[in-house]
Amino acid sequence: MRIVLCALLAVSAGCARKAAVGPKIDPALATLIPNDTTLLVGTRLEALERTSVYQKYLADRKFPQVEEFTRQTGLDPKKKLWELLFVSNGKNNMLLGRGEFANEMEPRLEKQGGKRFGYKGYNLVGDEKTAVVFFSGSTAAAGSTASLQFLIDQRGASNGPPAALAALMKDIPSDAQFWAAYSGGAVDLGLKGNLANIGKLVNSIDTGSLYFDLRTGLNGLALGECSTNQSAEEVQGALKAFIGLGRLNTPAKQPELQAAWDGLRVTEQDKHVKLYIDVPQNVVDQFLALLIGRNR
Questions:
Q1: What's this model's pTM, rounded to 2 decimal places?
Q2: What CA–CA distance (Å, rounded) separates 22 from 20?
Q3: Cα–Cα distance between 145 and 133 in angstroms, integer?
C-alpha cells in the first residue's frame, strides 16, 4: 500500500509540475476556430500592454489589425480589448476578439452607417462586403461578410486549433504575448514595404511558427520547415540577405543599433530554418523604426 501510495503521489506531483503546452487562447475564441484553419495569429493585448517595451516604445504606434477591428466594433483597444486571434484557411479570414463589448454596441454601429441583418440566428452589422458579429457581450468577430457567415456555419463543430496547428503550437511558450502558427497553403498576409519580403518567405515554407516576448526586449523565435534542403537553404539565404541589408541601411553613427542586428541569427538543418531574435530593450524603438517605419 505504501508503494502504491508513493507511486500515486509521484504521478500527481509530476502532473502538477507539467507546464502548459502552447500559447494561451481564451476558450471563448478557441471554440470558434474552424477545423480547416491553416493560420493562427494571436495577440494577448493585456499581457503585451503590461511590458515595459510596449509602454515605452509601442503604445503610440498604430497596428493595422487592431485599428481595423476597433473601427468595425467601435471599441477602444487601450481600455477594453483583451485578446485578438486572426484565423484563416487561406480563403476566409476573420479577426476574433475578446473584450468588454457594451450592450449598445450594435445600435451604435447602426447609427454609424452599418446595417443589421440576420444569419442563422445571429445579427451581423455592416454591409454585403464587411461586417461584425457579436457572439456575446465579450466575444466578437470581424471580417468579410462571407467569412463571418462561414464562421457561423462552422460554429459548434470546433474543438480548438486543428491537430496540425496544435502540433506546431506546442513549442511556443504559454506566456508569449504575440505568436503565430502556419500549417501550409497560400496565405496573403497583406504586409507592405520592407515586411512584404517576409510575406514572400512565409509562402516559401511548408509549415512554421513564430513567437515574441517583449518583457525584456524584442525576443523570439521563428521556425520554418521546407519541402527540400535546397528550399531551406534558399530561405536561410534570403533571411541572411535581409539582415545584411538591414546592417547596410543602419547609420554608422549608431553602433548600438548596428549591434542590434547581431541579435538576429539564422540556422538551417535538415529542411528546418530557425531565426533567433534577441534585440536589447534600449534599441527596440529604433530597430522597429527601421523595419516598419515610425508611425506604423
A1: 0.81
A2: 6
A3: 9
